[in-house]
Amino acid sequence: MDISLLQILLLLGTGFLAGIINTLAGGGSNLTLPALMVMGMPAEVANATNRVGVLIQGMTAVSGFRHHGKLETDDTVPILIPSVIGGLLGAAGAAYAPATWIKPLLLGTMLTMALVILLRPAIIAPEPGTPSRKVRQTPSSWLGLGLAGFYGGFVQAGVGFVLLAALAGTLRYDLVRANALKMLCTVVFTLVALILFIAEDLVLWGPGLILAFGTMFGAHLAVKMAIKAKPETLKWFLFIMTLCGCVAAMATD
After folding, report:
1. How many domains would you assign to the chain?
2. Residue 99: predicted pLDDT
3. Helices 43-67 and 29-38: crossing angle, nearest 10°?
4. Helix or strand or coil: residue 193?
5. How far is CA 151 from CA 6, 94, 223, 247, in A?
6. Domain containing 233: what range?
7. Major place of localization (predicted)?
8. Which pTM value belongs to this model?
9. Closest to 12 measured CA to CA, from 226, 222, 207, 224
């Protein structure tokens, strides 16, 4: 498809902001999906094309967090196993569940996350110095990560918030390390989904790569922000993004 200069700037700008938002919290697709659809893409094509940017920003963020020593590489496989299993089950469930279930589930999840951050902040943002746990030491983490994966496979939108709750709530990672692992999980989810979308010929590579260019720079900047930011600042940014997710869910047709 032909892309105008204005559309290129729109994709770069929304991609940059989404890269920051997704790396520090979640919900950046609330910006990029409308931007792609404004260009005339059907919803399913916009959803598929958007994953190019999500994948690139995820890879950029993971690389950045690892460079700064904030990615817990020794426990990644145990974290990914229940997440991926849940994601596959969620995707299978989405194929048969009524579409009318998606909006209430998305809205309910965002509202629950906002209330948890406001009323029980220690669940999502452990106090500094709180020791983290391994998956093998915390059986409940399998359930939390599996549910996060199921939600991601079923809905996708807002999965970053659910992953943060599972990683910080059960394994007690601080928000920086939880965000690093969240992005790693996102890369795995997105790669699988993108392969399927490519097989179905739903990806428009021109807009997708332009969007990815913006998300890459946004994610790169967000990693630096996450490393330097105070835990309290990250917590309130996460809270604000969950509220934005609630608004986006209510506005979705």
Report:
1. 1
2. 62
3. 140
4. helix
5. 35, 10, 25, 19
6. 5-251
7. membrane
8. 0.84
9. 207
